[in-house]
Design brief:
By secondary structure, the chain is an alpha/beta fold. The chain is built from five helices and five strands.
Length: about 160
């Protein structure tokens, strides 16, 4: 299972005017992911346009940091599926999955900007920009992870 992770509006409120509040919600995400050791994180935050992967990983708690395997590319129209071009973040996730041969891998995106994803994107777990990742979001994420785990355990051709 891949979790595409945004920072602003997820791991802290957006905008965040107090540097001490940056990544304040990261421990809550650590706790929510604890029962799901199979989840790997790909950073989809806009911060990646200005920082290296090592710099992006640095402020994360160790429990999140060790799950991070990559960051999404900045999508260009040439490598973006046409249907997703209006939905930049969704397109970047799809491009990353395709480039690594993971098109069939279950994935979720934790983000606060629904306009960056296709309408009714089932993989999007939406956060409130004003508060970030909270208990209600954690419950939605865990529920989606459980559904993904159940689907993966079904024999080929079985219906859930």
């Amino acid at each position: 299972m891949i979790l595409f992770l945004d920072f602003d509006g997820v791991l802290h409120e957006d905008p965040c005017f107090d540097e001490a509040r940056l990544f304040a919600r990261a421990p809550d995400l650590v706790q929510a992911l604890a029962p799901f050791p199979e989840v790997r994180i790909v950073l989809s935050t806009s911060w990646r346009s200005q920082r290296t992967l090592a710099e992006l990983r640095h402020p994360l708690p160790e429990a999140l940091n060790r799950r991070v395997i990559d960051a999404t590319p900045l999508a260009t129209s040439a490598d973006t599926p046409a249907a997703l071009r209006p939905f930049r973040r969704h397109a970047e996730c799809a491009t990353w999955l395709r480039a690594r041969g993971y098109e069939q891998t279950p994935w979720l995106a934790l983000d606060d900007r629904p306009s960056l994803f296709a309408p009714h994107c089932e993989q999007l777990i939406l956060c409130d920009s004003n508060i970030g990742f909270v208990d209600a979001t954690a419950r939605r994420l865990q529920s989606a992870l459980l559904r993904g785990r159940f689907r993966r355990s079904q024999p080929i051709g079985a219906t859930a």
